[in-house]
């Protein structure tokens, strides 16, 4: 389920707004121009100080570069760091009107419903819980607002320098082996699995946890389906993620060797290390942030935090001999069976964590402060993985464009890669087609015949090119603009008559359609191509030059140790 994240706006000409936004999702400030409002720096609800994060950061600065955000938008939208003192008290008393726009809200909604309240109250709240607050494709009469959306998403909204620097270090460490690496995001997220009814693809407590979450979604009317559905049928329709085992078989069909380096992205891996065992057996060089970064590096990213109790679970008291005797006397008529053997010891890890409540209660407990802190940490881990995935030589999504309407990590990475490096190798596979192929050889997946391998290669290789881009534009962009920001966020240096254009039935460009770049941009591109392509951003120059030979040795040892680690047992296997 989407988690609310908050931003505040302050008025221009007596107009103020309160705003909320989801992690790494477009802060569509085009509606601010419609409302003539001033933006107060956003508050991300998962990273408030009340959630246990370090006092070193405020909510927005926990992830993003605050000064970059303010300075880059100064010519478009006025951004302030806080509400005026006269309005802070009113906000605490909840005196501001509150709106919860859908991610498909039109400009008409803001002009006819929001703007009148804004003029009357001076301050309003906009709560965004679906990853957006404005329709993906704006009318053709609003090109400047669409360009503003591009500037915000790809330039104003930048991760703070510490995240970017550590992410670049991780990329360097992956590439020091001298070969390219592939980034893979499984997309095994509990909420998505519950939304689509994929519980039967898992076992035991994982199925129970998915069904419990699905029951909550039905009760909240987030979905209007039966609790129990055929997960295998859903999978065949492409509505469930590819399992890591299936991804490994696809990579083998493509010709990847056991020496291939695979970076595992994503802060949530539902199913734990157990579901990764088949993939790790096929590709031992499977690494993640914990195997590339030291504990000190990750703790520096988090910042100094107030210590919290690690576990609230208390071991049950041992029964006295008197209690045991009373239970024996009440055990029923004789002849009595032998008393049961003594209970085995209960270990602490069995009762703590996200799964410990299943054997004790019927309802999931209220999240503790430690749970909130861990959720905030997940934002940082996702941000690190985002940097590595965008820079990877190849990216393969396990579950993108799932149709739930919620933004997903893979779609955001694919959109960013398309914007920055359109020629990069990004697989845009069709899960329904892939499952049809797997159903042909599911009984003998590890030894497919030659024809099956050829068909898999044809589909995956075609997804890298024009057909994959068109499919992504057709199915993903209507739900999430950032998943396919072309042609709105790009321009063409070659003459327009040389471009190929493909439109959908409603006239929307699926391929091509970019405007021609202005002359100053063409000349700037030529000058840039003459310079050293290896020039690094300022933040990278300032911080990465401090790396020493010890850091290089550390990187090699971390990657090597990750490659040699025992893949059969993980004490944290959940």
Question: What this model shows, in words?
Answer:
Mean pLDDT is 79; it is low at 1-30, 532-555 and 559-574. Helix content is 41%, strand content 9%. The protein has helices at residues 30-35, 66-72, 85-92, 107-121, 143-156, 161-175, 190-196, 204-219, 231-236, 244-254, 277-282, 289-292, 295-302, 321-329, 369-391, 409-420, 431-441, 450-463, 466-475, 519-530, 538-544, 549-564; strands spanning 6-11, 16-20, 37-43, 79-80, 98-99, 123-126, 181-185, 261-264, 286-287, 394-397, 425-426, 491-492, 502-503, 509-511, 515-516. By secondary structure, the chain is an alpha/beta fold. The strands form four sheets. Strands 4-3-1-2-6-5 form a six-stranded mixed β-sheet. The chain has a five-stranded parallel β-sheet with strand order 9-8-7-10-11. The protein folds into two domains: 6-158, no CATH class; 179-300 and 370-528 and 537-564, no CATH class.
